[in-house]
Amino acid sequence: MSDLTTAFLTIVGAIFVAELTDKDALLLLALATKTNPWRVFAAGSIAFTITSGIIVLVGSAIVVFVPIFWIKLAGGVIMIGYAFFQYATGLREEQDLARKGENLAKGQSRGALAAFATMVLALIVLDLAGDATELLTVVFVAQFENILLVFFAAVLALVAASGVEATLGHRLARVLSAKKIRYFSIAVFLLIGSVVILSTSFAIPS
Question: Which of 67, 68, 107, 109 could form a disulfide with 115 if both were Cys (CB 3.0 to 4.6 A apart)?
Fold first, then answer.
């Protein structure tokens, strides 16, 4: 297996797992239980393609000005901090996202196109407001220094996660409560953050 393929699969796997446990997942699951899952999947795919492009461009700009060592180290620390933040504020966030999902689903009656556009915009804003997949994307831009590789891998991971959340929304909602997703999310962020910090600590800052 080539280094490029290994890097691609690493990015896809990490971002896919992170997205399944991110706040975007809670909103997509809430929407999938109340409206057409194909519409939810399409909205997620469009929104995350747009945000991935923005985040990759931002990450490539950051790499120009900040040494890669410090980007990766800061990324790991922020991920661990994000895990503790999730633990402290998770319940309120779950309730807010559940209400937002209900409001977006109710908006279907105002017109399919307007409701779809609102759904896409809500997902874009939520994703750009700051989450683990954003941070991982920037760290991967710094690590692999290939923006096209990171962009396509991130889009594939996020679209695949959107498909899982939209298609299996009803079943996942019954099996995985918001609380369980939050605890799994905390474990994932702690693990990824720790791995990033430990692997980066063996590198020499430039």
Answer: 107
